[in-house]
Design brief:
Layout (H helix, E strand, L loop, with lengths): L1 H26 L15 E8 L13 E7 L2 E8 L3 E6 L8 E6 L2 E8 L1 H4 L3 E7 L4 E9 L5 E4 L14 E4 L4 E5 L3 E3 L3 E5 L2 E3 L2 E8 L2 E4 L6 E3 L4 E15 L5 E13 L6 E4 L10 E7 L3 H10 L5 E10 L12 E5 L11 E5 L5 E4 L1 E4 L2 E6 L3 E7 L8 H40 L1
Parallel strand pairs: 11-19
Antiparallel strand pairs: 1-2, 1-8, 1-9, 2-3, 3-6, 4-7, 5-6, 7-8, 10-13, 11-21, 12-17, 13-14, 15-16, 15-18, 18-19, 20-23, 21-22, 22-28, 23-27, 24-25, 24-28, 26-27
Length: about 425
């Protein structure tokens, strides 16, 4: 009987081992193992993000990052919600190569990195929209806990680890009248301490087809109605793309040429201080050095602002400076209350000069004897609780709770004491 029972137990143990082995052989591919993308084969990995360096608002950032490995190239994708803007990966005097996309209200940056940098602490700055403040924070990737999601997908050429930085006063978009000679603003480019040449090309778009436009005396003539582009390009062989090409950056300027001229801005010359045939070249500035400079100035003045660039040119494309006051009309955001709007002129050194302005339909109207950068804003900065403020509130809450507990204890003790005295008196 005992032998039969032992044989039965042995049979079930053997069956159990066989089942485990079979499951491992058949279902092993369904089991996820921790795998670091640095020490593993090419592929796509999901990696937990350590957000301990973020004091608050961690829910607005990706809890995990996607790391793509292709040979010695790594591409890390990290994103934020719509409550965050202007996120920048700190790279010293360099600019990390990246691409950006949006999906479901989130913005995702894909940075090109080396294995060494991927394993280090990554420092960022970001603007917290609800708090109207810029914060600094750091993240680290828990690479050892990475999970392989699949093979690496070739998406073509990707940015080098570091890319050139182009600086120019040119806005991203201009409007001008047909026939205007558009003078091309100068530009410089650097890659760390390396000074780079900037090449400039231009083309006209019609029916989806590009036609090269000749650049003469550093300007182009807007001969047709439609869309022109001026493209600045800087490259360096110090860093290479995944296809082995020199690292590069392009800055595209769009110029809309129309028969009726610009609707973005208008100019009037009631004092006759401009040469005959002078044209206005307005631009809306939404990125770049000038925008960052303006945004810094507005931090203590206004949350809601727009930045415009205004140039005046003669019939030959040369820059025209007013010899006295002219009247400018800028098409500001339609949601801005024209009774509250304020206009500032920002000089090259960042100095602000407030100008008297009035609403004029969809425009903001003001007089000035200057061209250059103008900021249209609605004054007012939302209160943002400083970090120490939250600490003070927390301490105050603790003290209030502690005081409440102490009062309760004292009252209970007094009640017990009074009850005891009453009982003794009865006895």
């Amino acid at each position: 009987m005992v032998k039969k029972r032992n044989k039965l137990i042995a049979f079930f143990v053997a069956m159990f081992i066989c089942l485990i082995t079979l499951a491992a052989l058949m279902g092993g591919g369904l089991t996820a193992y921790a795998e670091s993308p640095v020490s593993s084969s090419d592929g796509t990995y999901s990696v937990p993000v350590n957000l301990d360096g973020l004091a608050m608002g961690a829910d607005n950032f990706s809890p995990s990052a996607t790391v793509e490995k292709s040979g010695k190239n790594y591409y890390m994708t990290f994103g934020h919600s719509s409550s965050i803007s202007d996120m920048v990966l700190e790279s010293g005097s360099m600019q990390t190569g990246y691409t950006v996309r949006t999906a479901n209200g989130w913005t995702y940056y894909t940075y090109t990195m080396s294995a060494e940098r991927l394993q280090s602490s990554l420092s960022f700055t970001a603007y917290i929209v609800p708090m109207s403040m810029t914060v600094d924070f750091s993240i680290t990737l828990n690479l050892a806990a990475g999970t392989r999601m699949g093979d690496y997908v070739d998406v073509g050429e990707r940015p080098a680890e570091y890319v050139p930085v182009i600086e120019t006063s040119a806005g991203a978009e201009y409007e001008a009248a047909r026939g205007t000679v558009f003078p091309i603003p100068s530009a410089t480019a650097t890659l760390g301490s390396e000074n780079l040449d900037v090449s400039i090309s231009a083309y006209y778009v019609q029916g989806g087809e590009r036609t090269d436009v000749a650049i003469t005396n550093n300007s182009i003539t807007l001969e047709n109605v439609g869309e022109y582009h001026v493209v600045y390009r800087a490259e360096s062989g110090t860093y290479l793309t995944n296809l082995g090409n020199p690292s590069y950056t392009e800055y595209d300027v769009k110029i809309t040429s129309s028969a009726g001229g610009s609707t973005l801005a208008r100019v009037e010359d009631p004092n006759g201080v401009l040469p005959e045939g002078t044209s206005i070249l307005p631009s809306r500035i939404t990125a770049g050095t000038l925008y960052e400079q303006a945004a810094e100035k507005m931090k203590s003045i206004a949350d809601n602002f727009e930045v415009f660039g205004v140039s005046l040119v003669g019939t030959d494309g040369t820059q025209v400076m007013p010899g006295g006051n002219i009247t400018l009309y800028l098409q500001a955001n339609m949601t801005y209350d024209r009774n509250e709007v304020v206009v500032y002129h920002m000089a090259e050194d960042g100095a602000l000069t407030e100008l008297s302005a009035d609403g004029y339909g969809r425009y903001v109207k003001f007089d000035t004897d200057r061209t250059g950068t103008f900021i249209v804003c609605i004054p007012g900065v939302a209160f943002a609780m400083p970090m120490w403020g939250y600490a003070v509130i927390l301490v105050a809450c603790v003290l209030v709770v502690a005081a409440a507990v102490m009062v309760t204890v004292i009252l209970v003790r007094r009640k017990k004491k009074a009850k005891k005295l009453q009982e003794n008196a009865i006895e």
